[in-house]
Design goal:
It is built from six helices and eight strands, in the order ααβαββαβαβββαβ. The protein is of the alpha/beta class.
Length: 168
């Protein structure tokens, strides 16, 4: 695939390179670019025409000041106390915008599940495995790509956990 093909797909060039290095280059032409941003899970699900829970959110948190990536289905919220316990941390907060960019190399709304600037610990909520296919950001807020959840978790180096906020 040429760089023009990558640009046409809408996949961020650095993320496209990460996909190729992981042997997942065949996902690049399957990416879908939308004229309107798909920064939120709801926007992405509406654009794709899939269930909200089929969107994989890549969220950066700070656990005792250290960035950690949490992969969560789009219909759910992260329970910070469950993340704290899973990591054995004293305090977990949402990472600041600059920390997200510095850690991943991508802007919020376009953070892919792997291929980041730095290696971080990754927690993947088990709810992602409820689907045969999920959609995740491809490095920018206009482009998503499909991937099997088990493949996503494996390539992200994720630990399967239950960190989804429970509704009453």
């Amino acid at each position: 695939m040429t760089s023009t093909d990558t640009e046409d797909s809408g996949v961020h060039p650095r993320f496209a390179e990460a996909l190729r290095e992981l042997g997942l280059g065949d996902l690049i032409p399957r990416a879908r670019r939308f004229p309107e941003a798909t920064r939120t899970a709801a926007e992405a699900a509406a654009a794709i025409g899939c269930e909200l829970s089929q969107i994989c959110k890549s969220l950066i948190f700070a656990a005792d000041g250290v960035p950690v990536l949490v992969l969560m289905d789009g219909a759910s919220r992260v329970d910070l106390d469950l993340v704290r316990r899973a990591l054995g941390a004293d305090k977990v907060t949402r990472a600041r915008v600059d920390v997200v960019r510095e850690t991943t190399g991508y802007a919020i709304g376009g953070v892919p599940p792997f291929g980041h600037r730095t290696r971080t610990r990754v927690l993947a909520d088990r709810s992602l495995l409820d689907h045969d296919l999920v959609w995740a950001a491809a490095g920018n807020p206009h482009t998503v790509f499909p991937i099997e959840p088990k493949t996503l978790v494996a390539h992200a180096g994720g630990t399967l956990v239950d960190v989804r906020e429970r509704t009453a």
